[in-house]
């Protein structure tokens, strides 16, 4: 995935996303990693969110693909730009981006806390107490080895929780995790339409793979559930096809 997935057609996405399986905001058993195609990601825009980790400047193309740090920076940039641009068209009131706490190393003494709890090992979070997004680099490296679309999905999903925290309660779906998937689909495919993100060959399959790898083994029944693979893919696809408003409860559409 590169900054500026052109969706060549909706058919491959629908096909890829219709098949799906996944855990919390991360983790889970996974199939063998796939080989990445190389891609060149432009530098993030200068107005990146305050607190964004400094982009690394490792050269492109020497390792068969972009580095995980570069893809994380690009995903943050693409996601914040999408919400900054489209919020006024969607919601009343101004938009303030969440803070980007960035990388943490879960399971160690220095792990940051959300409230009184250390951030979870090998996971990614939006912490309402502090209004920040953070990710364990082990999760990102593990997922990135399967495909670079992983980091875009994780960041856009967590950002979806930050958006939920900014909405009136009536706009937040009881299935919060699935709504976050829907919002992630709306952002990533909306960004492609805006020209700020380019889909490369294999990216839609990688997204389906990531949603599957991160899904619960059982269908959604409780507010804390993430939903099974077909549900996660279904919600993501809805957002991808029909945008942010399609992720909101029916009453407001
Ligand atoms: Zn989540």
Automatic annotation (TrEMBL):
Pfam families: Zn_peptidase (PF04228). The keyword Signal applies. InterPro entries: Uncharacterised_pept_Zn_put. It comes from the Bacteria. Residues 32-68 are annotated as: Disordered. Keywords: Signal. The keyword Transferase does not apply. Residues 1-28 form the signal peptide. Coiled coil: none annotated. This is Metalloprotease. It comes from Streptomyces mordarskii.
